[in-house]
Amino acid sequence: MAVIQVYSHAIQQKYKASVCSKATFFQLCVFILTVVPPLIFAYKSQGFWLKLSSYVEQPDIRFKYQLLVILDTADDYLAWSTFQNFNSLQQSHIRIPLVKSREEDVNRDGKKDLLHFSLEMPVTDTEDIFALQLLLFFDYRLYKFSEFTMESMAYVHHSAMQSGAEYSTDGHLILVQRQPLAHRGVDSRYNNTSIDQESIFAEAYDFKRIFKEYNSRNVTTRYDADYSVWVRGRGSGMPFTITITVRYPEESVTYTPGFWQVMKDAWIQYLAVLIIFVLVFDRIKKYVFKNQLVTTIVDRRVKPHDT
Amino acid sequence: MGIPGIVPARFLTLIAHLVITWIIFWSRGDNILACLPQSYSQDEYNRKDMQLVVGLSVSLGLIAVELVGFFTGISMFMPTVALVSIASHASGSIALAYFIFDVWDCDLYWWVFSFCSCTPALLEISTAFAVIVLKKGL
Prior knowledge:
The complex is a heterodimer of chains A (307) and B (138).
Chain A (H helix, E strand, L loop, with lengths): L12 E4 L5 H23 L8 E5 L2 E13 L4 E5 L2 H7 L7 E7 L9 E8 L7 E14 L4 E31 L8 E2 L19 H10 L2 E14 L7 E8 L3 E5 L3 H32 L6 E4 L7
Parallel strand pairs in A: 8-9, 8-11
Antiparallel strand pairs in A: 1-13, 2-12, 3-4, 3-7, 5-6, 6-11, 7-8, 8-10
Helix pairs in contact in A: 1-4
Chain B lengths: L5 H21 L2 H6 L7 H30 L7 H23 L7 H24 L6
Helix pairs in contact in B: 1-3, 1-4, 3-5, 4-5
Family (chain A): Belongs to the TMEM231 family.
Organism (chain A): Priapulus caudatus (Priapulid worm)
Keywords (chain A): Cell membrane, Cell projection, Cilium, Glycoprotein, Membrane, Transmembrane, Transmembrane helix
């Protein structure tokens, strides 16, 4: 009749020795050789300690309804802003435009996805616009890891050889990081305004100073517009129009991982190499102890006559 | 006589160590450059070269001593000596393989030499002394 194996179990064999013996010394050496080399291997093959990681999040961007616009004519300039003190300083250069803006949440996820902005500056027929500089201010927030809040800026500028009727541009407000963000906590280092609204001095509205301070930050935004159109030939009586679409894209944010994430990652790498060493040295130990290369007391759990 | 495979294991690790030491003998250039500063003189190079050559030659000599002791059967059937010899020569071969591939500093050779060449050779010599002179283990 055919015979099959129905069951099996291991019989444990113990090897005992005194504390000061060759066997104990051998076991200690093998233990160190099993535990330490995987750490060395995992470390020397790079990437053991996770220093940088990234996550993807769509930031919560809101237009603050603050702007500053300067248009250059042939020998003069026109300016306007939402800052009262700046407007007072400009005196005769002030021209009040018609500003329309609307933020749209395309995918209805609660976060705005783009800003439609248009500015119509009334100009006389003799005033030819050759250049424009426009600052738009946004409130920028990230929530997933650290609660990051900052004031961000979009700088739109263009200069042309011919006078224009309209400037239209479509671009993205992208995050520029010079330093990874934290993995938790509240981060509002850059939540201060680039322009001090209360200031009555012209330096507060000097673009050079604003840009220098803004660029000194470690986290900023940049308006990235490759697609801009300068339309020439303004009809008589028509205003100079600026049409801007600012899109708020989903960003890949780099951050410094926290302690436990680093530990988890390191442990996985260590364990993966450790298992190989454990298996190899287990075979070696079995050979050594079974053949009594080091003398021990052999203690069989199950005696041959036991059931 | 009863331990299966221990004699071949000892022989193989000894030969592996011998072969790899011989290979380092012929390809030691990169290792010497690794332990010299960026700008070095020919004298410094020759000095380091001489040191490494001496180390390698002594290592080859010690392996030869051990082979003699092994083949003449003095320590062929002693488990402890076999264990120490296998462990030293195996770890020595692995370390010297890293020495070649990772282009280690030539000064690191002395560590490998002391632990993996001197230890088994000294053990072999003392075993030979114990067996021949003191008549133990016969």
